[in-house]
Structures are given as structure tokens and as C-alpha cells.
């Protein structure tokens, strides 16, 4: 999912991201305002993962929620 689509779906994604990664707060998600790279960084930080794993986890989540046919 490219950055423009990600930001365009931010309102829809925000709640689902919080459900997926409960260590992220509403304040965290409000602060990053739909910037994909910041979501990756926040997931990486909160879960202690390598950046590559955080990116993979986010991509897997996005594919599950908004597969190619849905975007």
C-alpha cells in the first residue's frame, strides 16, 4: 500500500492498528497522523523488533485488511 493510499485510509486503519498492536496508544496514533514510516518505527520501538520485522508485520496486516483487490 503506497503512502498516499495509506494516509487516505488512516481513519479506517487507526482503530484496526490499535487492535492489532495494543501497545500503541491513541496519542501515539494521533501524533503520527497516518505516516506509514512512522507507524513502522512506532511498532518497532514498542515491540523491540528489528525494522525489517516491523515492516513485514505491517505489510502482512495491510494485505490481510486491504488486499490488492480492496485498494
Automatic annotation (TrEMBL):
InterPro entries: CsbD, UPF0337_stress_rsp, YjbJ, YjbJ_sf. It comes from the Bacteria. It holds the Pfam family CsbD. Residues 6-55 form the CsbD-like domain. Belongs to the UPF0337 (CsbD) family. PANTHER family: UPF0337 PROTEIN YJBJ. This is Stress response protein. It comes from Candidatus Promineifilum breve. The gene is yjbJ.
Amino acid at each position: 500500500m503506497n503512502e498516499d493510499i495509506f494516509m487516505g485510509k488512516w481513519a479506517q486503519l487507526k482503530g484496526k492498528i490499535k487492535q492489532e498492536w495494543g501497545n500503541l496508544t491513541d496519542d501515539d496514533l494521533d501524533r503520527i497522523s497516518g505516516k506509514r514510516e512512522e507507524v513502522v518505527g512506532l511498532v518497532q520501538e514498542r515491540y523491540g523488533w528489528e525494522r525489517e520485522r516491523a515492516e513485514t508485520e505491517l505489510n502482512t496486516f495491510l494485505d490481510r485488511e486491504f488486499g490488492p483487490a480492496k485498494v
